[in-house]
Amino acid sequence: MYPQSSLSGRGRKGARPMFSSKNRRGPQVKSIDPNKFINKATPIIEETPFVPEHKFVDFGFDKRLQFNIDAHGYEHPTPVQDGAIPYVQEGRDLIGLANTGTGKTAAFLLPTIHRMLRHEVKRCLILVPTRELAIQIEEEFRIFAKGLSLYATLVVGGASINRQLSQLARKPQFIVSTPGRLKDLLENYGQRIDDFDVLVLDEADRMLDMGFIRDIRSIMSNLREERQTLFLSATITPDIEQLITTILKDPATVSVRKGETSSHVEQDVVRVEGGKEAKEEKLVELLSGPEFKKVLIFGETKWGVQKLADRLNQRGLRVAAIHGNKSQSQRQKALNDFKSERVQALIATDVAARGLDIPNVSHVINFDAPKQYEDYIHRIGRTGRAGQMGMALTFVTSGAASFEPPRPGGRR
Ligand code: AMP
Q1: Whose CA is nearest to atom 1 of ligand 1?
Q2: In this predicted model, what pLDDT tens digit does every residue of 44-70 receive, in sequence order?
Q3: What is the C-alpha to C-alpha distance for residues 284 and 298, in angstroms, rounded to an integer?
Q4: Residue 73's CB: how many other CB atoms inside 10 A?
Q5: Structure confidence by residue, pLDDT tens digits, 313-349
Q6: What residues contact residue 28 under an 8 Å CB cut-off, 6+ apart?
Q7: Total domains in the fold of the chain
Q8: This prediction's pTM
Q9: Are residues 225 and 243 in the same domain?
Q10: Does ligand 1 come within 6 angstroms of the Cβ of 357?
Q11: 13 inside domain
């Protein structure tokens, strides 16, 4: 067990928030009431199992594709697959409201591969927020497209442009891309995408959060009007709604967002007196607990994440870091080391961790509390997956160092 004394007691939900915006002077920075980081997990037994309407064979997929699905061991569609596949097969535009871990990748890949095998569509562009998500999708594509003479190319930042250009010259049917790099190739390298007739925007809310909206719009202006657009997002914000109305035609909606993934996650705060050093000490103490087997730690800044990882490694712990200042191969290595449990912990920024599918994360630790509650939900959704219980701990400093906004002209 983690050291009880440092954790809040159970049933603190009604307690007074530690950091109330009323008490602050200076500019208002919203911080999340720490009581929102405390929640008892719902026992897994309470969940009613999902009964899919279809079996994979009911979708009537091309035999060669069905062979690959069988070979991969998928028997029953997940809810988002169950709902979305028939619409995508029909050629409808789609709004899929689903998080990572719901099987959303296969929900758009399988029917699109099927339609390509039937010559109903020719080429598919998949836009995603991060390189890691692009890699994951490409890996999944390879499994399903095995032996089908369909190819995918990754077009992502941090990798050789020349290599990507020569791969694109071979006209792969699928491009999996982050918006920045693709825009660069369109604007500066004369690439064209006007023969793509399927567009997938995966984790669209994340792409918008990351400020990709202009790149996305600019990329879309290079696409043909007659196309099928599949829009996947975990949330619908007013910005998203506006984007949806301008780019989708008569979309079908499939939502599997029920109660988020956090119901199986025991959530608590770890109250720490003092600043960064005290938090580091507490983290080291927690990581020495035997149940802290595969721990995903979130920090706020790239710099802070790297520094924390360096310090923990110096102290003899096995940790890796993942953030935007690392090269793609460094990020991939960190991820692989974590997935295969060569390291005990992965320290990440929100952006770098987006969309990653990492099985069996035992704990999520918010070393720095997230700024947005939505980020919190995303973070803790990395544990308590696939029918297992998970635990999320959020560090709350009573020194208020990470909550207090700087006061103009004042001392901190
Ligand atoms: P995704 O939400 O697409 O990232 O998928 C989450 C995980 O679920 C991945 O590891 C998939 O390989 C897996 N998965 C997706 N669909 C199925 C299915 N129908 N049966 C079993 N596993 C699946």
Answers
A1: 103
A2: 444 455 677 889 999 999 999 999 999
A3: 15
A4: 6
A5: 999 999 999 998 888 889 889 999 999 999 999 999 9
A6: 21, 405
A7: 2
A8: 0.62
A9: yes
A10: yes
A11: no
